[in-house]
Amino acid sequence: RSPDAQHPYTHINAFQLIGMSSCLDLSGFFEK
Amino acid sequence: MGCYCSKEAKTPGYEDPAVLAAATPFTVNEVEALYELFKKLSSSIFDDGLIHKEEFQLALFRNRNRRNLFADRIFDLFDIKRNGVIEFGEFVRSLGVFHPNAPVEDKISFAFRLYDLRQTGYIKREELKEMVLALLHESDLVLSDDVIEVIVDRTYNDADKKGDGRIDEEEWKEFVLKHPSMIKNMTLPYLKDISVAFPSFVMTSEVEDS
User: Fold this and answer.
1) Most CB atoms closer than 10 Å: which of B93, B164, B190, B206?
2) Chain A residue with Cα closest to B56
3) Is B86 helix (H, G, I), strand (E, B) or coil?
4) What is the ipTM of this complex?
């Protein structure tokens, strides 16, 4: 198996990773 | 003549705040406040009382030309009538899903439609990978192709309980309930009390809640 399989990020939930996108943050609507 | 109601009735897509308040977690006063915000956003480029894609991008990114996969999907979901613009009622109803008091089922469903990139009723593996790549593109995080494959495979296999190569809404709901932080971005805490958080645009609200 590739050594990358042991990479610390491989245990990240992909949807949690996606949820970190700043483009999903609607705060911009409320800034002056 | 010139009264508040007759003036607003001429705005395309305008809906009665009482109707919107009944359909969302917002109060009538908060809907009125959101109308002030909506007017600002919808007149930032085109003064037609509708939020166009460029105005949406301008509000989110301070850049009318910055396109992004996730912002496109959110715009599409806000654009309930699918006519290329966001009307006031659509804006309030969609924003209501992000209210802390909105039903969690609504948040789960909204997130599912958000991630169902091609609107097939399923989240496919290639869609998940496409979103991971989009996230990496906008961040400073650099991962090898092999690591990306492992992340996508692990998550996908965990969510696709039926093992049929697609995540349906039932599997999605089960997966979110197991990992609730996945929909953390579906809640905007400050929507709970708009009049406190954003007094600047509430000042002009004309309806008092008793």
Assistant:
1) B93
2) A29
3) strand
4) 0.83
